[in-house]
Amino acid sequence: MKELNKLIFSDTPVSWRNLKAAQPFDFKFLGNIDITSILKNLSTFTEEQWNQHTTKNPNYKSVSSILWVKNDLKTGLVAEKILTNVKELLQPIYKKHYGEGDFIRVLIPKLKPGGSIPIHRDSGNSLMEVKRTHIPLITNENVFFKVGNTTKNLKVGEVWEINNAREHTVNNNSDEHRIHLIADYKTKQ
Question: How far is C-alpha 43 from the geometric centre of its chain's CA atoms?
Answer without folding.
Answer: 20
